[in-house]
Every structure is written in C-alpha cells, then in structure tokens.
Amino acid sequence: MYDEILQARERIRGHVRETPILPSVTLGEHIGAPVFLKCENLQRTGSFKARGAMNMLATLPPGASVVAASAGNHAQGVALAASEVGASATVVMPRSTPVSKQRATRGYGAEVVLVPGSLADAIEHAEEMARERGSVFVPPFDHPLVVAGQGTLGLEVIEQVPDVETVLVPAGGGGLLAGVAAAIKATHPAVRVVGVQTAAMPGIVQSLAGGAPRALPAQRTIADGVAVAGPSTLTLDLIERYVDDVVTVAEESIAQAIVLLIERARLVTEGAGALSTAALLAGVASNTGRTVCVVSGGNIDVNVLGRITARALLLEGRHRKLTVAAANVPGELALVTGALAELGVNVLEVTHELVTADLPVSVARITFRIEIAGPEAFDALMSGMVERGLQRGTATDLVTQTAASTHR
C-alpha cells in the first residue's frame, strides 16, 4: 500500500492542498505533552475526502461518468475531482444531509439525487444507478485508490512532525484511518496510530472485536460525517495490520471539542472532524506523548453549529439559569439586576412570571439565563448574592428579603 500512496501523492499534486499543522497550547497543557492539529478542515472542499476522490478519478479516461454516494464530504470531493479531470458526476445523498452540503456539492458541478433512508441506502441506490448508466461507482472508502489517496495525509504528518509519537485519526468506514496508518507505519513503525469513532456508531470497534466487518444500524450523531455502518473487508484488513487501537467518544465530548477548537484554535470543525480532539479531552487516548490530532473536516451546517455550541456551553456550566422569588412590588427587579451587575454577570435573557402554582400570591419568579465562567463561578455568584441581601431558596435559587418577609 505504501507504494500506492506515494503514487497517489504525485497523481493528486496540484489538485489538493498540503494542509498546515498548528500547535495547540491548550490541548498540550491538558495532556502534558505537545499537541498539533492537522488542519484538513482547510483542505479544498473542507475535508480530506478530496484526496481519495481525486486519486481515483485521475486514473479514469477523459469524459468519464461517475456516481457516488455520500452524506456530504465525499460528495464534494467527488464533485471537485470530476470538475478537475473533466468527468461528469452524480452524487446520491440521504435526504437528511445538511442543506449546506447539498448546495456545496451542486456548486462544484455535480448532479445531486436525494433518497430516503441512511447512507447505506444511498450507497445501494448509487451502485444500482452506476450499473444502469454504465458509470464508474466511486465508493467513499472501499477502494484501494481511495484509501491510497487518503493515505497521502499520513505522509504529510510525518514530514511536518517527524518526532510525533501518536497520531489520532477520526474513523467511520476506515478509509482515512487505514491509509494514514499504512503511510506512517511504512517508515515510522514505532508511531502509534489510534482511530477515534463516535460511540453512537462504533462499527470498526465492533468489527475488530468480532474479527470480521460488521454493519451497524444507522444512529443519529453530531458526527454525521462518520455515520457509517462499518468498515469494508479492505479497510478492516489494513486497520488490523497497521492501527494500534480504536477508541470511542460520547456525543457530549464531541460537542465540547467543537467549541474548544473554535474558541482556542480558531478552527471551525464538523462533528467528525473534532473526534480526535474529543478523545484527548475525554481522556480515552491516554499516554499519547507528542501527538497529532487529525481535524478531518470543517463542513458543519451553521444552524447545527449554533445548537451544538449552546449545548456544549450548558454541559460546561457556562450558560446557567438563576431563579429568584421576588415580591411583586416596584424596585425588586432592579434590586436583583443591580446585584448581578455588581458581580459582573452577563444576563442573556430574563423571564418574569407574575403568577405561579408553587409560590405565594404577590410573589413572582424571575428567571435569568446568564453567561458565567463555570460551576465554581456560579457558586461564587450565589455567595455574592447572599452577601447583598438575598436568601437561599427552596422553590427558587434565591429569595429577596421583601418576598421572604411578606409571606412568613
């Protein structure tokens, strides 16, 4: 496979980017060793998929017709490659594919066909369409040329960080993982290569445990780019030969990794692209030493990004709700907001309920949605509010003195 990867590099040169590797001080401090981010989210089309698609299509005769199936990234890679070599491309996508990825695929010149069901259903439909049209089917990972193209990323990692000890690679069907591992192990066998899957769809993990490719039912995951039933015989064989370990991470860890990469590295990533970072944050890839995290893609729907960010901030305790029982008299709201202002709290939203079922008449519930540094800062806030005359409550977090004295 190593020779095929070297050939792929020459074949795709000038069509894809050699993406940068950036150090991450934040992640380095977290694990106590240097960490580097391989920014494949800055690749053409926004993901590593352009490498494999370009390598395969570059071997086809001019004017060829190709068909592919994808949830987004492979679609864009095939569409770009087809435009580069003068081929015509049709891409079959699940209807659930984010609109942004559908539009981007059409923007590269491909015909998009939407079908119900999962990615596995889209692949079956695309294979049948290719047979009917006499077109070439371009699989997302199950082809030696595709795997070799993805493996060119591994060559770059070794050249950019020659003393790397561990490389963490996102994995779904295993094409990227297999290619990167084959490229690295050929010249640096001591480097650990670890695949990272979402716990929602651990097809490779279960296939390795069973000793044969295993297809899992489709599950919803924010890492939609790796929502693949499982590896193929080709990719599983390469993973068994070259990969040291494959671990899984929870959805919450993926969301937190997306936010960290935005805030600390200024990198926008999709769920699949943040898997390797999530593994470091969650501690499932321990004792990694000098580490490269492959950030495999950045094609995330803006609407989804907003929801993921909001959820991650909730999980980290940085967005909280503070409820106050206050007498329904003038000045009570100002009393509470003034105390919050003195303590430097940013209020995002206020809800004022004048009548509630669990509070006395003439006592209102005021709910503040606030932005705060975290759980310790929230505890400090509560202490500061008590120092300013409020009391700890039962039906609410806090009670103003007026509300407490009115209904003793």
General description of the model:
- With 408 residues, the protein is of the alpha/beta class.
- The chain has 3 domains: 2-47 and 144-314, Rossmann fold (3-Layer(aba) Sandwich), CATH 3.40.50; 49-138, Rossmann fold; 317-406, 2-Layer Sandwich (Alpha-Beta Plaits), CATH 3.30.70.260.
- 44% of the residues lie in helices and 20% in strands.
- The protein has helices spanning 2-12, 25-31, 49-57, 73-85, 99-107, 119-133, 144-160, 175-187, 203-210, 233-242, 251-265, 275-282, 302-315, 332-342, 375-387, 401-406; strands at residues 21-23, 35-39, 65-69, 88-94, 111-115, 136-138, 166-170, 192-198, 245-249, 291-295, 319-327, 346-353, 363-371, 391-392, 398-399.
- The strands form 3 sheets. The chain has a 6-stranded mixed sheet. Strands 12-13-11-15-14 form a 5-stranded mixed sheet.
- The longest helix is centred in the middle third of the chain and has 17 residues, at 144-160.
- It is elongated.
Q: Compute the separation of the termini in Å.
A: 79 Å
CATH topology grouping of the largest domain = Rossmann fold
Strand content: 15-25%
| Percent in helix | 40-55%
Q: Which structural class fits the helix and strand makeup? A: alpha/beta
Number of beta strands: 15
Count of helical regions? 16
Main beta-sheet strand count, sense and barrel state: 6 strands, mixed
By CATH, the architecture of the largest domain is named: 3-Layer(aba) Sandwich
What is the top-level CATH class of the largest domain? Alpha Beta
Q: How many domain units?
A: 3
